[in-house]
């Protein structure tokens, strides 16, 4: 039987495909921009027939799932997510979404050893002449979920970019149970965040600490975007990319000639990533581009793999940091915002890399819902806040007022360093709190950081 004959035999409608799902099943919805849309709508139409169907996804980007919309009391579907998008965050606030704690690098192992998967549904590219469907923008733990599943259903979307591997970036038709040709919905794009003045001040300090031949990982947000734009306009050369998330800023760095991958020790000349989200321009750039390599997350985010490249520069955001150096990047008190993601993976990997640097970036202040100015550098984390990067793991911390390295510093030294890059309005108060916490000595002074004035 030819691949196309097998394709026709397995081709069904979305409504027909979801008939395989039973009450009590665990169902995978795909990840990031590769989550199913038409299959979601079809499953929602079966609401009255099903109970206690548990759904897993990662960072919903394609609008609120239909199964959530039709079941506000969670009698039929329970929606769970490994890492929150803005959509997931709002659903969580409404008690319609549950978070699954994880370290990103460990997700494939969770699936292969612990997670139950009855049906795995995912969006893919059209089949190629060899019988393979490419996972497009989303490698991550996709293959591990497929291996665990009893039934695999692919939703074919002609708009999904075909991203070369790497490894484990596609599935052969022989491993697929049902094929659904989608409505070819537009692949979700990620709006480019506005770059603020604070973002630019932080980014300038980081770029000053990047050397030729460095290997870059950028997180999400305005500040990493600002770093990418500054690099694109800099004199830096022969940079490499080894990241979890491929973003527009990396494309800009490549197109301006700053990224060659020539000095990488592994995956030389390749921009390595495990998922991508950004603009349509980014997706067009990635499509069939031999300069990129899609890998599973237990490769991209392994600290031991990351560290094989020299001069790794990891750049990530935070919500809050306390005077001990504990970093919260995923919640505001008990309100869940995003997730652990791969921050810890790359902080550890950069530290292990020869000449590596891990930067945690944070604006010194924010305004609360009443408009009151608050410090993001606090004596102790807000009750309920989750520690993302431990105090023992944190390396460089950067605000618009300066940069400090916490490695090797005693608690009183950390307090001194962090207060020196806090907003001036809050420094005296933070000193008093440090004294109360017994992490301030009579020899302390606010001269432990390179304080930048603009």
From TrEMBL:
GO terms for biological process: acetate metabolic process; acetyl-CoA metabolic process; butyrate metabolic process. Residues 278-434 form the Acetyl-CoA hydrolase/transferase C-terminal domain. The active site is at residue 244. Keywords: Cytoplasm, Fatty acid metabolism, Lipid metabolism, Transferase. Coenzyme A-transferase that converts butyrate to butyryl-CoA. HAMAP family: But_CoA_trans. Belongs to the acetyl-CoA hydrolase/transferase family. This is Probable butyrate:acetyl-CoA coenzyme A-transferase.
């Amino acid at each position: 039987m030819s691949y196309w004959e097998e394709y026709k035999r397995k081709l069904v409608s979305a409504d027909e495909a979801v008939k395989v799902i039973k009450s009590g099943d665990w169902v995978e919805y795909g990840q990031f921009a590769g989550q199913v849309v038409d299959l979601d709508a079809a499953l929602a139409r079966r609401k009255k027939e099903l109970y206690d169907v548990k759904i897993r996804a990662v960072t919903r980007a394609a609008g609120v799932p239909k199964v959530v919309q039709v079941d506000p009391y969670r009698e039929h579907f329970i929606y769970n997510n490994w890492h929150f998008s803005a959509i997931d965050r709002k659903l969580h606030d409404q008690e319609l979404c549950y978070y699954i704690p994880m370290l990103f690098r460990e997700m494939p192992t969770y699936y292969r050893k612990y997670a139950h998967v009855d049906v795995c549904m995912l969006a893919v590219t059209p089949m190629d002449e060899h019988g393979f469907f490419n996972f497009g923008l989303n490698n991550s733990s996709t293959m591990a979920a497929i291996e665990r599943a009893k039934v695999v259903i692919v939703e074919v979307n002609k708009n999904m970019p075909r991203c070369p591997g790497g490894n484990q970036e596609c599935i052969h038709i022989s491993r697929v149970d049902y094929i659904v040709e989608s409505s070819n919905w537009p692949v979700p794009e990620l709006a480019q965040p506005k770059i603020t003045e604070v973002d630019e001040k932080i980014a300038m300090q980081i770029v000053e600490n990047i050397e030729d031949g460095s290997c870059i990982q950028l997180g999400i947000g305005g500040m990493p975007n600002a770093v990418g734009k500054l690099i694109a306009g800099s004199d830096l050369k022969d940079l490499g990319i080894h990241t979890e998330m491929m973003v527009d800023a990396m494309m800009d760095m490549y197109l301006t000639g700053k990224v060659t991958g020539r000095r990488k020790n592994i995956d030389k000349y390749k921009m390595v990533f495990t998922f991508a989200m950004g603009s349509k321009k980014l997706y067009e750039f990635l499509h069939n581009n031999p300069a990129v390599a899609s890998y599973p997350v237990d490769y991209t985010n392994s600290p031991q793999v990351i560290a094989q490249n020299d001069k790794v520069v990891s750049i990530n955001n935070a919500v809050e940091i306390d005077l001990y150096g504990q970093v919260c990047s995923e919640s505001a008190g008990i309100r869940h915002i995003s997730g652990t993601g791969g921050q810890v993976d790359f902080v550890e990997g950069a530290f292990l890399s020869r000449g590596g640097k891990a930067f945690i970036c944070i604006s010194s202040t924010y305004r609360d819902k009443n408009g009151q100015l608050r410090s993001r550098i606090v004596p102790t984390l807000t009750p309920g806040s989750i520690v993302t990067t431990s105090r023992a793991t944190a390396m460089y911390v950067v605000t618009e007022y300066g940069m400090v390295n916490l490695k090797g510093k005693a608690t009183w030294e950390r307090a001194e360093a962090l207060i020196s890059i806090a907003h001036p309005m809050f420094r005296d108060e933070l000193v008093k709190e440090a004294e109360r916490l017994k992490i301030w000595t009579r020899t302390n002074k606010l001269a432990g950081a390179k304080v930048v004035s603009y």
